[in-house]
Design a protein that fits this description.
The structure holds two protein chains of two kinds.
Chain A lengths: L1 E3 L2 E3 L10 H11 L5 E4 L3 H4 L14 H18 L2 E3 L11 E5 L9 H17 L3 E6 L11 E2 H5 L14 H9 L6 E5 L7 H10 L4 E4 L5 E4 L3 E3 L2 E9 L5 E10 L5 E11 L5 E7 L2 H6 E6 L8 E3 L7 E7 L14 H7 L3 E4 L3 H6 L4 E5 L6 H12 L3 E5 L2 H5 L20 E2 L10 E2 L19 E2 L1 E2 L8 H4 E4 L5 E8 L2 E6 L14 H9 L11 H4 L3 E8 L5 E3 L6 E2 H6 L9 E4 L4 E4 L18 E3 L7 E2 L1 H22 L6 H14 L6 H18 L5 E3 L4 H21 L8 E3 L11 E5 L9 H12 L3 E5 L13 H10 L7 E3 L26 E3 L23 E4 L3 H5 L14 H24 L9 H9 L1
Parallel strand pairs in A: 5-6, 5-8, 8-9, 9-34, 18-19, 18-20, 20-21, 21-28, 36-37, 36-38, 38-39, 39-42
Antiparallel strand pairs in A: 1-2, 2-4, 4-35, 6-7, 10-12, 11-12, 12-15, 13-14, 13-16, 16-17, 22-25, 23-24, 26-27, 27-28, 29-30, 29-31, 29-32, 32-33, 40-41
Helix pairs in contact in A: 1-3, 3-17, 6-7, 20-24
Chain B lengths: L4 H15 L4 H10 L8 E5 L5 E6 L11 H4 L6 E8 L3 E6 L16 H18 L3 E4 L2 E4 L3 H10 L20 E6 L5 H13 L3 E8 L1 H5 L6 E4 L6 E4 L2 H26 L2 E6 L4 H13 L3
Parallel strand pairs in B: 4-5, 4-7, 7-8, 8-11
Antiparallel strand pairs in B: 1-3, 2-3, 5-6, 9-10
Helix pairs in contact in B: 1-2, 2-4, 4-5, 4-9, 6-8
InterPro entries (chain B): DUF58
Organism (chain B): Flavimaricola marinus
Pfam families (chain B): DUF58 (PF01882)
Chain lengths: 925, 292
């Protein structure tokens, strides 16, 4: 075996034959081609002519080259060339195949599996025992070495995991290794601290070979919420030139279907490790996002899940409707807006509008009564989990709300009037707030001294009052009361939301209280203390390929674990649900960086791709044969023997050799077919019928139009060509003045495009004759399947009002004078465009003055095509009626056809005859 | 008329070959001849004949029965119908039977000899039908359709020599002659015969029949050219180089022949076997008709 780059030769000595090529060149060059003998009477004229070039005719250089190449190919072919010859790996003893099996492997896992398979096959050939281990899924005991065939059985179930190897487990496992074995390590290409130790451990048992292919690995860091924008960054390794990837925000659309809500490009500058994208989304859309994905990267690292942290609360603010323009600082909602707008999405509007948006919180600032229906809707909404936050005020204080009995939307009953302390007309000082009770949600907030209350509404002392108070004044008067309602709650601040009654809205305490009430809170990343003692159950789990799968079989994890540990076998990345919120566990942290794995120089690194050995012998010998064939042709051509039939054969062979399939052929032929169709349809007047898909109906329609064309040709100046069938889906209709449409019950409803085409056709002056062919069975209408089909067909068509054909319709006299329009059946039910209502009978004329427009449709069921139909010889195809009367009916049917086509082609010109008296009169002057 | 000729030609020739002892040549020639309608050669003056020439006032010597009463009834004079003077001509044919005439370049084309014989026989049939006497070398000019069989037999014989030359010795003085050959052989023999014929007052036509390849010389490469009998040969290494010089020589040969024809008052025409035979026949008739 000798190798030259990717080429190897099994019998390299044969290549010495190439030395003989120059000698062959000289020999071939010297020998001229053999002469041909020809009988030729003109030889008498040739006698005495001498060749200008007395030298013998040499073989031309290109022919020589061709022959040389052929010979060289033969020599090379027999030397046994192999592309990518596989060097045999030598080795004995057990073989451990280790794969990282991380998310970074997932993208080209198939290639890894192929590689493992190839390695196992090779090991099997050498009789080595093997074991297969994924570092992310370590077997509890040490590797079990068994036959390569047995190991290969594990391959189908050998899958990457969505996490990284756990350093401690890895160390435990490697400590337990025993015996001596060689290791093949399929690396995922990412740097990892645990590698060094494991490598040292493995090297102590035998040689280690690493398989790793350089490639770009991308990962997505968790989304950061920053003001109204979401910033998402991606990291990459190795750091290369500028690239652009797309990140998609994925979530449920309003219909509950998961789809890409938004995509943004992330650009990595050349030499930069991190790329960023900023999503600026409306809150509605932002709240729907469940995860971000790098498009086209199939790995768990390219997906980052969002949890509730991304959601901002939607708060509806409704004030008492006071129109106090200019006094902004006194507006009931001013301080609420100031406090909430940075952290929540505010919604304005009326109650009924706001409820449609299903906000998290509705704040009613000094709103006393709600309309009847609204109050019930709000109650429903609260019971479904809403938080209704009310503030008192003049209106509430002066209303009768919750006086006699407790209002469902008020936590307590109120006493009339309220109280004022510390004002000009009252005794006492304004009251300060008392420390918050232990049971209060505000417990722990420090009460600033400057917060005072000068006016408030006062609660009726009810038995339930004590438990509903969550904040009170220093004198024990309730300041904030709360009651649960269904799953939601109603909270009342007994003061105004502005600084009129108290200084509370001016203090930082106000904001903190709102936060505690979960009005303004955006859930923060929970700390370990928050999570301590809680249990979280995985709801959706990511696999290594980045697919999110719903799960309900995995055990829950403790809050401590959730806060500190990295994803691992016990806690796969995914969404974990707790009592009142969900937390996303992402594989890539906000600070994670990626780096390519570095291996010591002593470790042999091989590529991942398993190259296939390709034997080139056949190709070379085949090529040589081909060249020799060409040589035959060339030699024949050179010596003048290539003429007559031989030349044809040679040309055929050459065409076969070199004709390549033309990709553009079908398209060309398509457009050529279109052109042919257009030329055929427009070179003459062509009557056309719609292809229904029922071969018999189509055939009769074709024969009928042929008969009508013949009749027209014989009797009128219209000389139509052979009729055509058109497919309304694909063919252009504009070429045809007239379409005959036999309606069958089984035909397909045309597509939207076809209807658009048909409507365009009707608007631009085309006419369609609908024929339900059922006049013998049914009157016109929906009594027959065809009739119903016609209704279905015609519904999307742009058809004007239609009416039964009047006696003075222009169709009765465009060529023949007709009163009946029979086909194979003789029914009077023919419908055409209705006459305008103002049509009037002209003086002395037998018909009305209807001189505008050709009816775009004629609808009937007389099966005209059957009456018109003729065979190739012009004989009627189908019987009509009985005896001579039938023939008369056929004649009238033909006349109807003539009238119809005349009507199509000449329009209303016969109607214009009504003007003849006027014209004559004018001429007479 | 000429388009369908080859097909019906073969059909009919096959049928004739079975049905009659006549060589197919004769049938073909007759078919070819039927494409031309000829009458007797009018002398353009009054004399013995069948065709009306003119009315003239009756003279004393005219017999009463020769008076044309129909014409005379229209005037006071009596008129006599003069007929056109018609005499028979004797035409000598010579067709080159030599080996070089048997050449054909492809299976689709007839050999030169076949074309020459067909043309000769067709002209003979036409001439005989027109009342002329037709002869071949070795066959004195005679009239009558039975003569055609004899001629057909004679024409079917082949000559072993490479190239042939016409012979003017047997020609009667002031007769007409038709030479059909490829005229590729020794030009001197042809010239001598032509001059001898001209000396005898014989006028006529020379038709050169050539194969298309002889005009085109589409050869290339190393080639040995041989005459049909193999007695002449010429070897070349690059036949393509010879083409122009060969064509020059051929043109020179044709030029010489037409010059000879001009000098002796003959007609000369070159015909290719690839062309229609009927056109050549028309030319022959035009040529023989002229100045007759």
């Amino acid at each position: 075996m000798m190798t030259l780059g990717p080429l190897g030769f099994t019998a390299p000595w044969l290549l010495l034959g190439l030395i003989a090529l120059p000698i062959l060149w000289l020999i071939l060059r010297a020998v001229p081609p053999a002469p041909i003998r020809r009988r030729f009477p003109g030889v008498a004229l040739l006698l005495g002519l001498t060749d200008e070039d007395t030298q013998s005719d040499r073989t031309p250089w290109w022919l020589l080259l061709l022959r040389m190449l052929a010979v060289a190919a033969i020599i090379g072919g027999f030397a046994g060339p192999l592309l990518n010859p596989q060097t045999e790996r030598t080795g004995t003893g057990p073989l451990l195949i280790v794969a990282d099996g991380t998310w970074a492997d997932a993208r080209d896992w198939a290639a890894r599996r192929d590689r493992i398979e190839a390695l196992l096959t090779e090991a099997g050939r050498m009789g080595r025992t093997t074991a297969l281990v994924a570092l992310t899924d370590l077997p509890p005991e040490g590797p079990v070495f068994q036959g390569a065939d047995a190991t290969a059985l594990q391959i189908p179930a050998f899958a990457p995991a969505a996490w990284e190897p756990q350093p401690t487990e890895l160390a435990d496992w490697s400590d337990g290794l025993e015996g001596s074995f060689d290791t093949f390590w399929l690396s995922d290409g990412l740097a990892r601290d645990s590698r060094t130790a494991l490598l040292a451990e493995l090297e102590s048992h035998g040689t280690v070979t690493v398989f790793q292919s350089p490639r770009q690995t991308l990962a997505l860091r968790p989304a950061q919420f920053d003001g109204g924008d979401i910033t998402i960054s991606a990291v990459r390794t190795p750091i290369g030139p500028e690239i652009e990837v797309t990140v998609a925000a994925i979530g449920l659309d309003p219909a509950g279907i998961e789809r890409q809500l938004e995509t943004m490009p992330i650009t990595f500058e050349a030499g930069s490790e991190i790329g960023e994208a900023v999503f600026d989304l409306p809150p509605e859309l932002r709240n729907r996002i469940t995860r971000f994905e790098l498009s086209g990267q199939r790995s768990a690292g390219a997906v980052t899940l969002t949890d509730d942290a991304l959601k901002r609360r939607e708060v509806a603010l409704i004030d008492g409707g006071a129109e106090r323009e200019g006094l902004e600082l006194l507006a009931p909602t001013h301080y609420l807006e100031q406090a909430l707008s940075p952290v929540a999405d505010l919604i304005d509007g009326t109650i009924s509008d706001v409820l449609l948006a299903n906000p998290d919180v509705i704040i009613l600032a000094d709103v006393a009564t709600l309309a009847e229906g609204e109050a019930e809707d709000v109650q429903d909404w609260v019971e479904a989990g809403g938080l209704l936050l009310r503030f008192a005020g003049q209106r509430l204080a002066s209303s009768d709300m919750g006086r006699a009995e407790e209002d469902p939307l008020m936590p307590v009953r109120l006493r009339a009037g309220g109280r004022a302390v510390g004002g000009a007309m009252s005794w006492g000082e304004p009251k300060a707030l008392a420390e918050f009770d232990e049971n209060s949600p505000f417990f722990g907030l420090s009460v600033p001294e400057e917060v005072t209350v000068s006016s408030q509404v006062v609660a009726q002392p009810d038995p339930t009052l004590a438990e509903r108070v969550i904040a009170q004044l220093s004198d024990g008067t309730p300041l904030v009361t709360r009651k649960p309602l269904g799953e939601g709650q109603v909270v009342l601040f007994h003061v105004t939301a502005n600084a009129e009654w108290s200084t509370l809205p001016l203090s930082g305490l106000f904001v903190q209280m709102l936060e505690r009430l979960a009005v303004s809170t955006r859930p923060m990343a929970p700390t370990a203390e928050d999570l301590a003692g809680t249990t979280w159950v995985p709801e959706d789990v990511l696999d290594a390929y980045g697919r999110l799968e719903r799960t309900d079989t995995l055990p829950g994890v403790t809050g401590e674990q959730l806060a500190t540990a990295w994803p691992g076998p016990g806690m796969p990345p995914g969404l974990y649900a707790g009592e009142d919120r969900r937390i996303a566990v992402n594989l890539i942290g906000a600070e994670t960086t990626l780096a390519p794995a570095a291996w010591p120089a002593r470790i042999a690194i091989e590529g991942m791709a398993a190259l296939r050995e390709i034997d080139l012998k056949g190709w070379l010998l085949g090529g040589a044969l081909l060249m020799l064939m060409v040589d035959i042709l060339a030699a024949l051509a050179l010596s003048g023997k290539l003429r007559g039939p031989r030349a044809d054969v040679a040309a055929g062979v050459l065409i076969l050799l070199f004709a390549l399939p033309q990709p553009g052929w079908t398209q060309q032929s398509n457009s050529a077919a279109d052109d042919d169709f257009a030329i055929a349809a427009t070179s003459q007047v062509i009557l056309a019928h719609v292809l229904t898909g029922d071969p018999q109906v189509d055939e009769i329609a074709q024969a009928g139009l042929r008969g009508l064309s013949n009749t027209l040709f014989a009797r009128t100046s219209i000389e139509p060509g052979a009729p055509m069938g058109v497919d309304i889906e694909t063919d252009e209709l504009a070429f045809f003045p007239f379409l005959y449409w036999p309606v069958t019950a089984s035909q397909n409803i045309p597509s939207r495009d076809a209807y658009a085409k048909l409507n365009r056709y009707l608007r631009s002056g085309g006419m369609i004759l609908f024929d339900t062919r059922d006049a013998d069975l049914a009157g016109f209408g929906s009594a027959s399947p065809e009739g119903r089909m016609l209704q279905a067909l015609a519904r999307p068509l742009d058809i004007p009002p239609i009416a039964p054909i009047p006696e003075d319709h222009v169709l009765t006299r465009t060529f023949y004078l007709l009163q009946d329009f029979p086909g194979r059946y003789n029914s009077r039910d023919i419908w055409v465009e209705a006459a305008p209502v103002d049509a009037e009978l002209a003086d002395g004329m037998p018909f009305r003055n209807l001189n505008d427009g050709v009816t775009p449709v004629v609808i009937g069921g007389n099966d005209w095509a059957s009456a018109w139909a003729v065979d190739g010889l012009g004989n009627p195809l189908l019987p009509v009626g009985r005896g001579m009367a039938g023939e008369r009916q056929r004649e009238i049917a033909n006349r109807f056809g003539v009238n119809l086509i005349m009507h199509v082609l000449t329009g209303n010109y016969k109607s214009d005859q009504v003007h003849v008296p006027a014209l004559l009169e004018r001429l007479g002057q | 008329m000429t388009e369908s000729a080859p097909l019906s030609l073969t059909l009919r020739s096959n049928a004739e070959a079975l049905a009659s002892p006549l060589p197919p040549l004769l049938a073909e020639a007759e078919h070819l001849a039927s494409t031309v309608l000829v009458g007797d050669h009018g002398r353009r003056r009054a004399g013995l004949g069948d065709t009306f020439w003119q009315y003239r006032p009756a003279q004393d010597h005219d017999e009463v029965r020769s008076i044309d009463w129909r014409r005379s009834a229209r005037s006071d004079d009596t008129f006599v119908q003069d007929k056109e003077w018609q005499i028979a001509q004797s035409v000598s044919l010579w067709v080159d039977q030599s080996a070089s005439m048997s050449f054909t370049s492809s299976k689709e084309l007839p050999s030169k000899a076949h074309r020459a014989r067909t043309l000769a026989l067709a002209s003979a049939i036409l001439l005989l039908r027109g009342g002329e006497r037709v002869g071949l070398p070795g066959l004195p000019p005679r009239r009558g359709s039975a003569h055609v069989d004899r001629m057909a037999q004679l024409l079917s014989e082949d000559d072993a020599a490479d190239y042939g030359a016409p012979d003017a010795r047997e020609m009667a003085a002031h007769s007409r002659a038709l030479f059909i050959s490829d005229f590729l052989g020794d030009i001197d023999a042809t010239e001598a015969a032509l001059t001898a014929a001209a000396d005898k007052g014989v006028q006529g036509a020379m038709l050169q029949v050539l194969d298309p390849t002889e005009e085109a010389f589409p050869f290339d490469g190393r080639t040995i050219f041989e005459s049909m009998s193999g007695s002449l040969r010429h070897e070349t290494l690059k036949a393509g180089d010879l083409k122009q010089r060969y064509l020059d020589r051929l043109a020179e040969r044709k030029d010489r022949l037409s010059q000879l024809a001009r000098l002796t008052g003959w007609q000369f025409h070159s015909h290719h076997t690839g062309d229609s035979a009927a056109s050549a026949l028309m030319w022959i008739f035009g040529a023989l008709e002229r100045r007759t």
